[in-house]
Structures are given as C-alpha cells and as structure tokens.
Amino acid sequence: MSPYEVRQSEYAEVMGNDPSNFDGDDLPVENVSWLDAAAYCNALSEKENLTPVYTIDGKTVTWDRSANGYRMPTEAEWEYACRAGTTTPFNTETSISPEESNYYGHYPYEIEDNYFSQGNLTTKPGEYRQTTVAVDSFSPNGFGLYNMHGNVSEWVWDLYGEYSTANEVDPTGPESGTRRVYRGGGWNDFAKNMRSAYRAALPEDKGSFNLGIRLVRNAVNGAGNIVSAEKDRENSTDGKVLIAFFSWGGNTRGIAEEIQSQTGADLFEIELVTPYSDDYNTVLDQAQQDQNIQARPEIKNKVENFEQYDTVILGYPNWWASIPMPIASFLEEYDFSDKTIIPFCSHGGGRFGQSLTAIAKLAPDAVMGEGLSVHYSGGSSLPDDIAEWLNLNNITAENQ
C-alpha cells in the first residue's frame, strides 16, 4: 500500500488532467469517481509496464487477481491498514485532534454528546483548515501510512452491502449493488466520520471534493477473476420534477423557493407532526438525540401522486454532518426506485458532510444527481449558482 494518497501532480501526469477542487501538486487528487480511480490504476500500470488489474466494460468491472499492476484496496485491506494493529476508534489510540489529522476540527470525537459540556471532552475543538493539505502531512500510523484519517476519503474496491457474519479470508464484498464504498473521512468531516470502522458510499460514477485514491499492489499473486457491477439504473430528468425540502431556520426554504421560481416545479415542504423547538441551542440537542437513536419523526403532510415524479430535488440543512432525521423519514415513506434524487443543502462550513452517503444508503435504488451545497442562504450569487447547477442536471422549466 502506498504510504500516501495519490498527489494531483501524479494523477495529472498520467491522465492529462486534474479534476481537483483545490490546487497544489502535493495535495491529494480529489473529485474523482470510482470509475476514474479504476482507469487511473490501469493507466499507471501500463505506463510502468505492469499488467493492468481491471477490465472495464461499462458498469461491469473485472478484477484479475493475478495481475501485478496497481489497484484500489478492498474494504477489508483498507481497514486493516488503517488500524495498524489498533482496536480503538482511531489508529492514534486517542480522540484524534486537529493537530494529528486534517478534518473539521471544530467537531472532535464525541462533541455531539458534549456540545454544551465541552469540559468532558478528551480532545477540545481546534483548527478547521477548510482545504486539503499535502499528502505527507502529520505523523504516519503504525504501518507508516499517512492520512488514513482525514484529508480526503479514499475509494475501495467493494460495493456497499452488509458484512457477512462468517469469518472470511481476504473478503472482496458483494458481486452487485448500487453504491461503492469509500473510507477514512476528509477535510470537512466531523471526527466521528473518520473512525477506522466508518463506511461511506456513493455511486461509482460520482466524485467529491473530499474523495481521492490510495494505491495498492499485490504482495503475492492472487488467483482468479472477480466480476463486480453496479446495478444499472436509468438516469432521467425528462419527466416531472418535485422540490421537496425540510427547513428549520429558513435558509433551505429560501433556496427551494429560488429553485421553484426558475423551474416551475411543484414545491413540497416536509413538516412534522411534532416540530422541533424554535430555540437554536435546544434544536441542536434535539437533532443530535434524533441522530443518536436514528429517530424517524412523523411527517404530517403527504405528497399527492408521488409516482408521477421522475426527479426529486431534495433540500435540507446540514445537521451534525448529515441529514436531519425528517429527511430519513421522507426517504423511507416513498418508493424512490429508478427516480433521480438531486440533493441540495444549506450549511455553515461543512458543505454536504456525510449527508450524501446517508441519502445513498436510504434510497439505494435511486439515481443520484449532482448536488449543490449553499453556505447559509447563498447571498447575491444564489440565482446564478442555482441556474448553473440546474443546467448541470439538465433541469429546465420545460421539464414541467
């Protein structure tokens, strides 16, 4: 396993482009999809006269386990390497600090339960850099690997699925599924989402500004081929569009209304039978309690004829680096099979957090469009930002 995440300079030299959100030769490449990562592995293997590992045929990817070229680690390999012999949440064996890793340092481990009693925290809130850092930053773990926690998350081979309860040697994950796994957490993640055990998932054709690559090669030759394929899902935004949103302070509502004004799409506000408190400090506590118990607050209103919509533009505030639990209630109440979900969120600095993963897990048979994260209410550029984003997702007033 490489000690480092793949640098932007390394990726650009092989692929001829750098898709990264941040700019710097020694910064990790990010904004790459799983399919981009597989293509990079093959291209680098060919450049170094090694046997490419992957055969890519659309959404079907075959892994030649005997090939000596570069590949992504399996999920099991990644976690073994990250832990480096530890059994604690982080390989530092402490509540990892912003001096030890690049993450949203305002939110160290267990802050969620101690937001109003920070004297109880082992690690206090610290620096939030709001960018990636060089791949050799901080101290390596016990296996000599840098930034296994934080900086950028890293794609692994496996499709997302339940772990087997049986003991397995070198497991490679399910043969089919709708999402690929990535691990490790990134620069904008809360510490809880950097744990050695934390699993995140996205469609294999999507990238993110906090998601990169770490390469491995076989130490010894494997045997046989493994065929893996994401389930084919039709991505269509030609039909009727619904804008569904949950808003507490009004920022998300304002964004939804601007989207509605540009598209003419139907607007649906997710409202609760028992609303959250109007007091900010109280709602912080309520939202965290709901996340801890994975509550499903009851929604008081219904979408009429939900089946008529092909696309759902789904809005919410970023709460504790994820979706508010009313969004989970909404996703579980309706059948999203073969529908397209296009997410947007309002945030105070964490962008999407792990909300896209939460949506992907709750609506595994939906297609995921390109998301839009808006800082608070978006400011004067909001109409232009929304217009550009709608165009990226092929959403126009003609859809309605």
Notes on the protein architecture:
With 400 residues, this protein is an alpha/beta fold. It folds into 2 domains: 1-231, paralog of FGE (formylglycine-generating enzyme) (Alpha-Beta Complex); 240-399, Rossmann fold, CATH 3.40.50.360. The chain is built from 8 helices and 14 strands. The strands form 3 sheets. Strands 9, 10, 11, 12, 13 and 14 form a 6-stranded parallel sheet that branches. The protein has a 4-stranded mixed sheet with strand order 1-2-8-4. The termini are far apart. The model has no long low-confidence stretch (mean pLDDT 94).
List strands and helices in order, with pairings:
Layout: H1 8-15, H2 34-47, E1 54-57, E2 60-64, H3 75-83, E3 153-159, E4 176-177, E5 180-183, E6 200-202, E7 211-212, E8 225-230, E9 240-245, H4 251-263, E10 266-269, H5 280-292, E11 309-317, H6 325-333, E12 340-347, H7 355-362, E13 367-368, E14 372-375, H8 382-392
Parallel strand pairs: 3-7, 4-8, 9-10, 9-11, 11-12, 12-13, 12-14
Antiparallel strand pairs: 1-2, 2-8, 3-5, 5-6
Helix pairs in contact: 4-8
